[in-house]
Amino acid sequence: MASSVIVIEHPLVQHKLTLMRRAETNTATFRSLMTEISMLLAYEVTRDLPLSYEAIKTPMCLMNAPALALDRKLVIVSIMRAGQGLLDGMLQLMPFVRVGHIGLYREPTTLEPVEYYFKVPHDIDECDMLVIDPMVATGNSAVAAVQRLKETNPRSLKLICLLAAPEGIKNFHEQHPEVPIFTAAIDEKLDEHGYILPGLGDAGDRLFGTG
Ligand code: URA
Prior knowledge:
By secondary structure, the protein is of the alpha/beta class. The protein has 6 helices and 14 strands. It is globular and about 65 Å long. Uracil (URA) binds at residues 82, 135, 137, 195-196, 199, 202-204.
């Protein structure tokens, strides 16, 4: 099966991403843009959610109207800490989802992910999982997170990010070829510290003002 990378080229996404990339964009604006863009990403990523029909009454008459088939379990898993930036907007759009968290930090010398937190809702086998992390740089965190989540036996997995580096995509799809990556852009390359170029800097620092 060919591994898929879906670049969300919608003009609003691209415009907001450019604003986020600008070095002069402050923390408050960066955070709001992240929330806005996360809703637009969620819109694309959830295109295949199943609908069922229910009988409703409009002010005019009865009709069979489409609604999300919520018997299917949808879970968002945020890779902390930067994943939190994508979470708020997605929860506004889909308040019915349950949320898991994986805490991973990049060990600065090896760039390998170290897990410090793992909490997902119980009873999530056979759920559809959206794993969110704004930056897929080396891909090591996403690889480790998805590896760990596969132990919970999900029905499907999707990885959603803002920016992906070619190196990260390759690494991720070598380990998880069947998991599609949704991203707003594929950037040029990584620098020697594992940061994405041209990128937007450290997403966590820019979100939380810790830079
Ligand atoms: N994480 C970030 O926040 N930014 C990068 O460029 C790479 C990893």
